[in-house]
Amino acid sequence: MKKIITALCLSACFSPIAFASSPDFPHIEVSGKGEVFVVPDMAQFSVDVVENKATAEKAKQAADKAVTGFLARLEVQGVKRENINSGNIRLTPEYRYPKGKKPELVGYKAIRNITVTVLDLNKLNGYLDKALGDGINRINHIELKTSKEKEYIEAARLEAIKDANDKATSLAKGFGTAIKGVWKISYHNNYSQPVLMKSMRMDMASDASESYQDTQMVISDSVSVVYRLKD
Description:
By secondary structure, the chain is of the alpha+beta class. It has helices at 56-76, 124-131, 149-174, and strands at 4-6, 27-38, 42-53, 84-85, 89-96, 104-118, 138-145, 179-187, 191-193, 195-197, 200-201, 217-229. The longest helix is centred in the C-terminal third of the chain and has 26 residues, at 149-174.
């Protein structure tokens, strides 16, 4: 009689993948998962420059001026231009809607988004203080990351492989048999979970530094394996 053992990885956040075809020899299907907890060492934050003026030209000029001033403040602090993405400008008309009357054009809104990559997390709060100035009164988001993501993904992958091997060996032994080899491997995409901080207003920036000092992010990986059992 053919022996088939199926193991469910209870710690995983998904059900084991159904394999397209089942081998005609004794086998066991196992899912393994690996996780690495990492302290972030870099960050990325985004701000919007918003200007409302009577004409589209004046709105654009005001937004460009605010962006130029912000970039100059960052440059003084040592931020390289390649770590700044100033984005494209968006110009939209602004209307007033009097009751019972046609909409009235009252001006134009210019919006420019700027994303800054911070390679030294210790400098993040200083950059945030400099970000909030003329034309910039809100930081959209702060995303904490790690500069060694590839290294940690590899570590999580090795943990997932070890987890699958340990489960398969233990289950096979419990049913009075042993692993003979690997028949099929299905690899799942790795998952890096950045830490997203809340957006903040100008009066909140000074309190931001305490919120990310001991934060951890999770990098995980998973794999499904069909092992051949001894006959």
